[in-house]
Amino acid sequence: MKKLILDVDTGIDDAFAILYALSQYEQVELIGITTSFGNVLVQQATKNTLQVLELFEVDIPVYQGAAASWGNQTYTVPDSFERVHGRNGIGEYHLPIPRATPKELTAVDFLIEAANKHQDELIVVTLGPLTNLADALKKAPETIKKIGKIVCMAGALTIPGNITSVAEVNVYNDAAAVNYVFEHLFVTVVGLDVTLQTMITKQDIARFDRKNKKGDFLAAIAEYYYQNEYAEQDYGGALHDPLAVAIALEEGFCTSFIELNLTVEQTDQTYGRMIGKLDELTLIPKRTRFCLQIDAT
Ligand code: BDR
Ligand code: CA
C-alpha cells in the first residue's frame, strides 16, 4: 500500500484534508504529518493537528517543522489569516490540550527518513508553505528525489491570488522555498485555479451531526470558514487542501494538466506571482504539472 505524508499549517481546510486522507485508509496509509508556520505559528499548527487527531481517535505521528520562511527567524501571522481561520487556526473552537506531543525527530529528518525507506511508494502532499520540503531537499537532495509523487497546494496561474492580487498564500509565505523546489523536483501543483471550484456549501455544513463532538467540531469550523474566507463576499469556504489530497490519491479528479516550468517572482511589486519560466519554456522534460481543470461534480 502507498504511504502518505501531509505537510500542514493547520488551519481549517488543513484539518479537513487530514480527515479526508484518514478516510482513504483503504488505498493509502497516512504515516506521518509534518507541520509548519502559515495559517498560524508552527507551535499552534502542531497543537491543532494533535488536537484534531485526538478528537478523531487516531494515533498518527506528528513532526514539527519550520517556524519561519527562508532567511527569516520569526513569523507574524497576518491579520487576514486570523480572519479566515480564527486566531487559533480552528475557527476559535475550543478543543482540550492534546495528550500526545510531537515526535523528537524534526519534520525535515522525518521526510528524509521516509523518502529513504519508502522511495517511490511515498506520496508527499504539501498544504502550507514549501519550507519543510525545500529544507529536506537541500539537506538530502538525492534521497528526496526518490519520493514517488509530490503534490503541492500552491499558487494561482490563470486567476488572481488570495493574499495579494498576484500571490497565493502558501507561495507568498516562502517564495524562495517554492523556487528551490521547482528547480529540483517534479511536482504536481494544485492551485486556486481549481480549488476555488470546490466550495463548501450551507447544505454540506447542515449534513454534519452536531449532536456528537466530532460533528459539532466539523460543523463549527466549516461555518467559521464559510463566513470568513472571503470578507467582501457573502460566502467562502474553498476546500483548497482537501482537493490537493484528493488529486494526489486519484488523479482523475483533475481533468486537465498543463506541463511547464514554473517560477515565482520575488521582487516587491509582483512578489509571490507564479508564472512560466521564460528561459525554460521550451525545455523538455518539464518539471511541473499544473492542474488546470477538475471534475467538481
Ligand atoms: C491555502 O492557504 C491556507 O490558508 C490554506 O490552508 C490553504 O493551504 C490556500 O491559499
Ligand atoms: Ca494549508
Automatic annotation (TrEMBL):
One of its GO terms (cellular component) is cytosol. InterPro entries: Inosine/uridine_hydrolase_dom (IPR001910), IUNH (IPR023186), Ribo_hydro-like (IPR036452). One of its GO terms (molecular function) is purine nucleosidase activity. It holds the Pfam family IU_nuc_hydro. GO terms for biological process: purine nucleoside catabolic process. Keywords: Glycosidase, Hydrolase. Residues 4-297 form the Inosine/uridine-preferring nucleoside hydrolase domain. The keyword Iron-sulfur does not apply. This is Inosine/uridine-preferring nucleoside hydrolase domain-containing protein. It comes from Enterococcus sulfureus ATCC 49903.
